[in-house]
Target: dTDP-4-dehydrorhamnose 3,5-epimerase
Amino acid sequence: MNVIKTPLEGLLVIEPTVFGDQRGFFYESFNAQRFAEQTGVNVQFVQDNHSRSAKGVLRGLHYQIQQAQGKLVRVTSGAVFDVAVDLRKSSPTFGQWYGLELSEENKRQLWIPAGFAHGFVVTSEFAEFLYKTTDYYAPAFERSVIWNDPAIGIEWPLDGEPLLSAKDKAGVPLAQAEVYP
Model:
């Protein structure tokens, strides 16, 4: 696998080694030993999640203020524009974002360490999104930063208004959000 550092400390793009021929392809989507050796991150995942969303659905920007989750995310069908926002107040990149396409074609993954908000918008007709987390879902600690906060300035690839859940519509601006030390 190829590990690509991003401008945000700890946020990593993972490109797996894919073996393909006329029959299809095979790749190892996660190997704890190899992940630790090549990223320097030794994690234990406790929960796997799978979502399916239609084109234009935007989910995020989500995080848990306690029981913070590291996430390893990927798309198995379709494509999304995936975004992480640094919410670590002590970080020199606090409030900055990084985004990239994750798709069934490029098979890229994004390692999002605890301390970041995360979201994505579906750019294909639909997308199936999988992610592994380092802590359990804890609704009492779940928070959401509004997806279109001008203070963050995410450049979402949208054709019109996104489809949002009530929870995501109620997200708060970064200036009002609970953040990490």
In short: The two ends are 32 Å apart (CA to CA). The mean pLDDT is 97. The chain is about 5% helix and 40% strand. The helical segments are 32-39, 166-169.
